[in-house]
Amino acid sequence: MARPRTPLLDRERIAATGLQLVAEQGEFSVPQIARALGVQTGSVYHHVDGRAGVIELIRELVCELITDEALAADPWDRALEEWARSYRAAFAAYPRAIPLLMTTPVRAPKVLAHYERAVARLREAGFAERDVMPLLTALENLILGSALDLAAPEAMWEPSPETPLLAGALATVGPGRADAAFELALAAFLSYARTLLDGPSEPSGP
Amino acid sequence: MARPRTPLLDRERIAATGLQLVAEQGEFSVPQIARALGVQTGSVYHHVDGRAGVIELIRELVCELITDEALAADPWDRALEEWARSYRAAFAAYPRAIPLLMTTPVRAPKVLAHYERAVARLREAGFAERDVMPLLTALENLILGSALDLAAPEAMWEPSPETPLLAGALATVGPGRADAAFELALAAFLSYARTLLDGPSEPSGP
Q1: B96–A182 C-beta distance less than 8 A
Q2: How far B59 CA sits from the closest chain A CA (Å)?
Q3: Global pTM?
Q4: Which of A13, A145, B18, B195 could serve as B141's disulfide partner, Cβ 3.0–4.6 Å?
Q5: Do the interacting molecules here have an ipTM over 0.95?
Q6: Chain A residues in contact with B99 (beta carbon < 8 A)
């Protein structure tokens, strides 16, 4: 009698299972993925480059949600703005993946290609090469902080009679408090970035 | 024969054990705390207001690391700057606590008192009441995003021959890439906040 066909174990299913575990637990292990897929742990390792390889597959899945075309928009500040909104939405869908992905080196070719386009867009806009990574990282930090905040409750503080000023400030905040804070941070970032472009140009030559 | 004295089970030990679990796993459970302290789960519940109560104790422990006096500095932008640096350092020590604490309502009296002082400082500086929470939240998002980034490897991208622009931009970044991005984001935030103060004053009356 033929053995039942083993379930298809491809990189896509491994990635999707890993992402689901991270979404639930903030973590995953390769044996957990194997159990969820009903296969031996060793079989999973045949398809991926270790645990680090699974992290990169998960990174690719989340980053696929970022609208790549946003970076092509004109002018550059509209491009960054649209990219930031779509980036925040992608990670807001998987807030528990943020610490894992933020603290593991980026190796996924598709994601590196995405960074390459972001760097290209900033260089095209006229930013000095040395400003590009601080700008991108500062923007990512505010995006990812805001994505975590979007996963927070709307009523994030429970003021008491001892905190009347906090209560007053909270009372002026309408629905969408996380959006208001994100918009403020994004506006602050973009106006600062504009001043870097208006500044004196880099001295040429070594 | 006298039974051995049961280990002292106070809120401080529960908090410290909870924080240690969160630092290691990004999560904790009350039974885990009980096991770590060698007591019954029910005994832990006698000392705290459920799991939510433990989260607030953990929040107090982390927030104790924030220099409260920073907020008293003059002028207000120096106060926010020092507060932000100390806030980032506190959470950089416990990056895995960030998602848990960012997505649970703040109830700890000491932490609410800290927010009360931050709101008071911004109101004293002349910020409109309606701007206070968006400002504080935007600043916290960039602080916490940067704290996670500080826990990331110094070499966060592994560029390939397919990403020459990324490789070039990375080559210009010296040591302390996370600090450079944080300083940029903080400078951007503070200059934007200054423009809110310089703007037209609020119309008076309802």
Answers
A1: no
A2: 13
A3: 0.90
A4: A145
A5: no
A6: 26, 95-96, 98-99, 148, 151
